[in-house]
From TrEMBL:
CDD domains membership: CYTH-like_Pase_CHAD (cd07756)
PANTHER family according to UniProt: INORGANIC TRIPHOSPHATASE
Organism: Sphingobium soli
Coiled-coil positions: none
Protein name: CHAD domain-containing protein
Limits of the CYTH domain: 2-196
Amino acid sequence: MGREIELKLDLSDDGASRLSQWDMLPEREDVARLRAIYFDTPDTQLANKRISLRIRQSGRRRVQTVKGDGSAAGGLFTRQEWERPVRSNRPVLDAQTPVRDALGEAVDQIEPMFETDIERMRWQIEEGDAKVEMVIDRGVVRAGAREAALCEVELELVAGAPAALFAIARRIDAEVSVRPAVLSKAERGYLLRGPIRESVKAEPVLLDADMTIRDAFLAIAGACLRHYRRNESLLLTAYRERALHQARVAVRRLRSALTLFKTVLLEADVARFQQELRWLAALLGEARDLDVLHGRLDPVAQAAIAEARAESHARVREWLESARVRGLLLDIAEWLALGAGCSGASDASVADFAASRLKKLHKRVAKGGDDLTRLPSDLQHKVRKDAKKLRYGSEFFAGLYRDKPSQKAHGAYVKALAKLQDRLGDLNDLATAPALFARYHLPDNIGLDIKSEKQLLRKAGKAHDRFAQAPRFWR
């Protein structure tokens, strides 16, 4: 068994062609055609356990590879790996791999799921004292009648520190545009077997009570970056309202994670990333505001903002392709890969830390929203932002509370909190509508589908009361 550390980067096919001619690469290169078959049970038990099993053929040589449960933060993949030569495309599942133990009797259900057909170009390069294998993979992933193009750079650490991978990645990005890849080839194949997605929601974060605060933060922030990148990839293909919304949610979740864990992070790091993420959120926010406004207007009013909306969509694409956004993603990925500069206090257990942070946020929302109907709009907005942070924190830490009573309380609590968020969001829409109308030269009497302030305040007050009475799942 070995452990691989590799940084994956997405790039275009044209970018891959130009990168293969990069003058920083050594003259000698290896080129191979790699065909691989991936296996699982019909109900994808291996994927559910974060294990992949493939047999890859290059020429006459076949190698079976099992990759085990590992971490993938912003393109840096660290995984256990078992390899062995095999004679055919039939997996050998003995005690040398974790597959039989993972599946039990279901091991007999193993069958081909999808395949990859790739041309691989490979170089050995040096970065200071480190040695790195760089490959460019171009080809397709096929699952039944469906297929998707694949084009990525892999930088695998042969010797030295992981920082070398990011130094090389930045030099590559100065030559051709690249972004941290967050999907393995196996994940791409499984996605082809499912429905076509217009957006990707946040995935549950895999936490347990034995984790340190540092490990929990890295898992949470890595999940936020993955959430963002998957939706950004969809947006770079074609503008999708839902993908834009989810990309913005991912940015907000990452900003909330930085706030939740700021006591164990370097102040300068938090300030630097918050500033850039705030800028990115604002960039996405203009388009999101117009999308929401468009959906609430009648056809005549929709036509009045059509040009502004199209321009905002174009700006999103332009900025997402900018060096500033790409650099931010690489900076965050490297920061997480190298441990995020967490202080010694982050070695403590995350369980007590999570309960303390949730309790503090709950108190702010519960007290801040008292007598909500009399609060001025700016204080209502503050309660709304605190409620959003509490909602994200409750989702981040859900894995720490796995017993049935806690799960039941968690479900009821998040449901009450979500309803409060919705009501406060309606109030915020009402408060911001005049500025939106003025910005896009819309008349005040266009019939925006928003209830009166009095009705919204009454509903928000009731939602706040139900939230304040909801059971605390972290007790």
